[in-house]
Amino acid sequence: MAAKTHRVLPGFGLALGYTLVYLSLLILLPLGGMVLKASELGFGQIIDIALSERSLAAFRVTFGASLIAALINGFFGLIVAWILVRYPFPGKRFVDALVDLPFALPTAVAGITLATLYAGNGWLGRYIEPLGFKVAYTPWGIVVALTFITLPFVVRTLQPVIEDIETEVEEAAASLGASRWQTFVKVIFPAIFPALLTGFALAFARAVGEYGSVIFIAGNLPLISEITPLLIISKLEQYDVLGATALAVVMLGLSFILLLAVNVLQWWTANRHKNNEPLEVTAAKAGGVA
Amino acid sequence: MSSFRKSVSALLLSLVASAALADATLLNASYDVARDVYKDFNPMFQKYWKAKAGESLELKQSHGGSTKQVRAVADGLEADVVTMNQANDIEFLADKGLVAKDWAKKFPNNASPYTSAMVFIVRKGNPKAIKDWSDVAAPGVQMIIPHPKNTGNGRNTYLSAWAWALKQPGGNDQKAQEFLGKLLKNAPLFAAGGRDATTTFMQRKMGDVLITFESEAEMIAKEFGKGEFEVVYPSLTMQTEFPVALVEKVVDKKGTRKQAQAYLEYLWSKDGQENAAQNYLRPRDPELLKKYAAQFPAVKTFTVDEVFGGANKAFAVHFKDGGSFDQIYVQK
Amino acid sequence: MKSTRATQEPRWVRYTLLSVGLGFLFFFLGLPLVAVFVEALAQGLPVYLEALKEPETRSAIGLTVGIALAVLPFNIVFGVAAAWAIAKFDFKGKSLLITLIDLPFAVSPVVAGLIFILLFGAQGTFGPWLAEHDLKIIFAVPGMIIATLFITFPFIARELIPLMQSQGKDEEEAAVSLGASGWQMFWRVTLPNIKWGLLYGVILSNARAMGEFGAVSVVSGHIRGETNTLPLHVEILYNEYNAIGAFAAASILALLALVTLVAKTIVEWRMKKETEMLNTVLAPEKT
Q1: Chains with 3 or more CB pairs closer than 8 angstroms to B?
Q2: Residue in chain C lying closest to B199 (CA)
Q3: The whole model's pTM is what?
Q4: Are A103 and A111 in contact (CB under 8 A)?
Q5: Domain B115-240+300-329's class?
Q6: E strands along C173-272, which residues?
Q7: Which positions, given as ranges, span the membrane (chain C) (predicted)?
Q8: Domain B2-113+242-291 coded CATH 3.40.190.10
Q9: Which of A238, A240, A241, A242 to mutate to test the interface with B (most CBs of B within 10 A)?
């Protein structure tokens, strides 16, 4: 972490130092301990555990469902964040507060409630199942649970950023003749895209690890609707702590790579669209196309 | 700020307060649904012990999944006694040196003060005429059970069906595994636990038969009403045991051996046995079993030791990775 | 009329977005919430209130709130420090650092609990040493606080980083070049700028701290009235066929989440009042 030539702002050393120490103590040390524990098994055995048919199927289900859930949240979360910041409507405060609910509700309660809603005789299931679409006790149930559990991420990372967009830029773009759509694509979207990616990545990461809600709605059939965390629990039920940590380490590695990829992409886009140029230029860019 | 301070001091108080009042404190680490049993049993024992030894005891309870609980005890949860619903969980503690190797001999009846049996719960009027295991495996029947590999309840069901298939004319392990394959095809899902299976069957109206502990049937009646279902006893089923043991390491450290030993022994007393019966668990006391005969119809049972040569062996053969359950799903 | 053309969407777009967004929230949030309360109130309000009066439920509520409060200052200090370093300065390995901060999200909560057992449990790395000194971390409140810290670790930092990035550093640089000290700059410029993000972060990490089940469940030991948090208590009640009690307790957690509504409203109202006061003071000079 090389220091740059000269910095105007103070506190870099203190802030970064504290961050690194705290991160090391609370996160890296425990995770390192876990990796060390798993390494007692030896590389070959870890690979065997990770590549068994059950594990592979579980990885597919877990990462696939998480990806779909994160995409759903990326799309709808953007809309929700937008209307919460920009549009007035009755009951807005209540709706705004509701967004945090998935975090506060214990995951088991979420799972039980969603399973009840989407079961064949549930409030939603009774209308969906006659259409030939089963949600509860299928992989789609997993997607629903994960969408619920990770819903706050995209909305809450976007909200402050949208609040922060200065309407002057939009007005300037408009005065230069940009249509609303052009303003959105050229001015607003680039500004919120990094946050959108962040929210997406966080939702995805959280979804991959989720256990408590999923097991109540997934059906848990081997090779079909078993998630990786369930396999970890299954190992623990066999008192096989080593096997459980091995699987956890593999999962952690995969999540780490995916998160790193998204974060690098995010950083790249953020830099590319960094508003170093004055407002007028951004506005003119949008307007210039018109 | 003041409310913050208040809750922090409340937090600290709650940490200190518990230790102060009693002469001794016992912690009983127990399985999930045992609360009702010990909620009534603990005050009875407190009274008994006060009269007998003149000590006032504080009794604390910890409930959770059986395997999770013993792992916690192995990792340092200072429970004086463990009261579980799977023998292999106590074996695990014995292996770790926390519980005596001959724990099953330290108390009567295999150290299990009461028992239960795996039974079928079917819908009112038994529309699919489910009488025995073969009916559950018949085409077009749906069975709701908790995950056979990850829950004690599901494992008991699996082993019950296996033992039944084994005892059929010409039965052997291979045929039993084939039968289990057929049976498991009728499971549209594996519930997260016993309670979740019940909710799925009773509230979400899925499946034709729910397989669970006899004692659960009464819990179900309590929540969903007696007229909603019928209990069917198959021709052979597992007698499930609820083994108890002293955690030697902890009682020695805390100096609570005397109290803990008396606590567990009291489970076999008339009061303890009657309490079990009132919680729909079959008492060991033959007189009480007779008294509550209406509640506990005769049923042909086997124990895991008889058919599978012990809980540990049954677990290793069927539920470890690569065991018979996995083989049914992954043909390799 | 023309000036609003580009700062506001056409009416049909607005209505479409509103109905899509609210529809999504209705199906994915509203219905589950209603279902929780329907279950909790299935036998009427008196039974609901009775369920909440149970001493074990009340001690669980106390413990849950206590842990959430204990975790909060750690998360705020870390979140602000990390966001300041990451958003306002350029250094190598930044994406890696952010990814490491995200990592706790990707760790399955059960595994998160497990790693602290591996460290502090009787068979763990520091277990024997802790036992020798009669220090209890696992199966006691400290362990539950540590597990909650782990689970909620990224929230505030992750909330603040994109916000502070989009704000840039012009304002702070201006403040410093005008002679403000580091702390003055922070209190007068940075903090007011990030207050919404910080608030969202606090609200989120709070909700998560109170609702966390998996990790805390592993390290708690489930001792009734002692180390049972509300989510753990919910599970136990449910397993005991006390659905009313379970959903009543869950509804309390939902209500605690809605407390954020009150908090946010108060903050907004105060700030509105402040700006109004400022405007009335400044108004004569302006005209």
Answers
A1: A, C
A2: C241
A3: 0.88
A4: no
A5: alpha beta
A6: none
A7: 12-40, 60-84, 96-122, 137-157, 198-223, 243-263
A8: yes
A9: A238
